[in-house]
Amino acid sequence: MVYTVTFNPALDYIIKIENFEIGKINRSNQEIILPGGKGINVSIVLNSLGIETTTLGFIAGFTGNKIKEEIEKYNIKTDFVKLKNSNSRINVKIAKNSNTEETAINCTGPIIDKDNVEILFQKLEKIKNGDIIVLSGSVSKGIENNIYEEICEKLKEKEIKIIVDTTKDLLLNTLKYKPFLIKPNKEELEETFNTKIETKEEIIIYAKKLQEKGAQNVLISLGGDGAILLTEKNEVYYSNTPK
Questions:
Q1: Is 19 helix (H, G, I), strand (E, B) or coil?
Q2: What's the pLDDT score for residue 5?
Q3: Helix boundaries (H) for 79-228
Q4: Listed residue (73, 55, 76) closest to 9, CA to CA
Q5: What does the pLDDT read at residue 145?
């Protein structure tokens, strides 16, 4: 079983507008509502590949109920902690059409207290040897930057593969647990090392620094320019992005 954890899931409200103007009344050509969040996206892709997966995390209010409903339309298992305060976030994404760049407004999400985090920890106890857990995305207000580290600590005695897709301290704090795979993008790699990266050679240099800190395999996504993978066998692979 692959478990994915999304601390701050969202409804992605995608609006297609032909000629968007600030300060004017704009009429949309199309609206789409999708469940969003990195871990949820992983579960949806895995499900399309025929791999069983369960989504974990936190949901709140009517938007949280809608997120759960939309995920379950894919026949994906959900095991969320239901918060009593506020609502899960709605992210608004505006685009002229499918071929143009999006303008996104990402909201903050609800506050998660320690009692709710403990409930999540209890749910993680069901993870068995041979399972995979994917820790991805940002965290909500009230959550410390060592939360992924805490999860790794609680699971360290189990023979599982841990995959981490986040940035800065959330990522760096997990490296001592030697995660099987980490997946920062180029911008997150720059944030982690507080530098500007210009070339693929520089990407490889900084990805190797993450391996030196404990990561087994490092995948750097480059958006429309593809991805670079450094394996635990010191192999380097580059892939472009299909159109």
A1: coil
A2: 96
A3: 114-124, 147-155, 168-172, 186-193, 200-212
A4: 55
A5: 84
Token pair recorded at residue 81: 């902690």
Residue 130, exposed/middle/buried by CB under 10 A (0-12, 13-18, 19+)?
Answer: exposed
Q: Are strands 89-95 and 30-36 parallel, antiparallel or unpaired?
A: unpaired
Sequence letter at residue 227: A
What are φ and ψ of residue 35, in 5° steps? -70, 135
Q: Are 72 and 47 in contact (CB under 8 A)?
A: no
> What is the amino acid identity at position 236?
V
pTM recorded for the entire structure? 0.89
Q: Work out the angle at residue 133's Cα, subtended by the Cα atoms of residues 128 and 137, and round it to the nearest 5 degrees.
A: 155
pLDDT in tens, 41-69: 999 999 999 999 999 999 999 999 999 99
What is the residue-averaged pLDDT of the chain? 93
Q: How many CA atoms lie within 13 A of 187 on its CB side?
A: 2
- Measure CA of the first residue to CA of the last residue in the chain; give whole Å: 31
The total number of residues written for the chain in this structure:
243
